[in-house]
Design a protein that fits this description.
7 strands, SH3 type barrels, 3 domains, two-stranded antiparallel ribbon, 293 residues, 14% strand, Serine Threonine Protein Phosphatase 5, Tetratricopeptide repeat, 9 helices, alpha+beta, five-stranded antiparallel beta sheet
């Protein structure tokens, strides 16, 4: 049994490596192509797409694919947005919408939608690759505010869907129960030792998998991060427009990712967010200048 599990694990790892190698671009250039499911193949056309009030989400997505293929990126943006309004969001639609924004030169909106695609499906390698590519186009270089351990933890959480982590937890718990039963009912000493120490290891892996599952689910619901949409914005030390140089914090540009830590609303100044950037620098920014992921 253990040998079969080991062979299956090795096979899955080798398959993943092979697929990743095939997906890698030989020249390092990005190819911003739409993603289409088997039921969502774009029809041929000139790019002039008409919609009616009764179009389904699938039809809207198909028309969005047609518009994108015809280089009508503004129409594609509208159709993908309408498709999500009609049938709900998906990683593919966010990815395609991000590509539409990128083709229009709207880097901030492109980054927002790539991030949203990855929140729903962290295994969407196309969205992750395009996200990293577009980051190289923005003015501000994002400062990593986490340690090596926190980065490792984020990579583990983003390795699979939250549902996949839940199934992994169920499988590990089943293996733990099997180990317990083997220890209790086996009369072979070496088998009892193997099941005892193996059971302890699987128990800790199960507990870790539970924690990761909750972290992955929380990641989907978390909207503490946002992207700056304005070409440039002056942040303030107080939740209002800077009235003098002393109230000016620092300047940020389109595409910069910030963490929202607080918010204030007032009749005169409107809504402002306190955001954290890089190693912990904090300042206030008008809510209309950013979009939450």
């Amino acid at each position: 049994m253990i040998r079969k599990i080991y062979l299956l694990t090795v096979s899955l790892i080798l398959s993943s490596i092979t697929i990743s190698a095939q997906d890698a671009s030989a020249d390092g250039e990005m190819d911003f192509q739409i993603e289409e499911s088997a039921e969502n193949i774009a029809s041929e056309g000139s790019g002039q797409v008409e919609t009616d009030g009764y179009a389904t989400a699938e039809n809207l997505a198909q028309m969005g694919d047609s518009a994108y293929s015809a280089d009508n990126f503004q129409l594609a943006e509208k159709l993908y947005t309408d498709a999500m309004a009609a049938g709900g969001t998906s990683s593919v639609l966010f990815y395609n919408l991000g590509n539409s924004y990128y083709r229009q030169g709207n880097l901030g909106k492109a980054l927002v939608n790539y991030e949203r695609a990855l929140k729903i499906d962290p295994t969407n390698t196309d969205a992750r690759t395009n996200l990293e590519f577009v980051k190289t186009k923005i003015t501000d270089r994002q400062i990593d505010n986490g340690s090596i351990m926190s980065s490792l933890w984020d990579n583990i959480v983003c390795m699979f869907h939250a549902d996949t982590w839940a199934w992994i937890t169920v499988i590990l718990f089943a293996l733990f129960l099997a180990g317990v039963c083997t220890y209790l009912f086996s009369s072979v000493v070496i088998v009892k030792k193997f099941s005892f120490f193996g059971g302890i290891l699987v128990f800790f892996l199960t507990a870790l998998s539970v924690i990761v599952s909750f972290a992955a689910a929380n990641r989907v619901e978390n909207n503490d991060y946002a992207i700056i949409l304005s070409p440039s914005v002056q942040l303030s030390t107080t939740p209002r427009e800077a009235r003098n140089q002393a109230e000016e914090a620092f300047l940020l540009h389109e595409g910069t990712k910030v963490e929202v830590v607080d918010s204030v609303s007032s009749p005169g100044e409107g809504k402002w967010y306190e955001v954290k950037v890089g190693h912990g620098d904090r300042a206030w920014i008008k809510a209309s200048e950013i979009e939450r992921i």
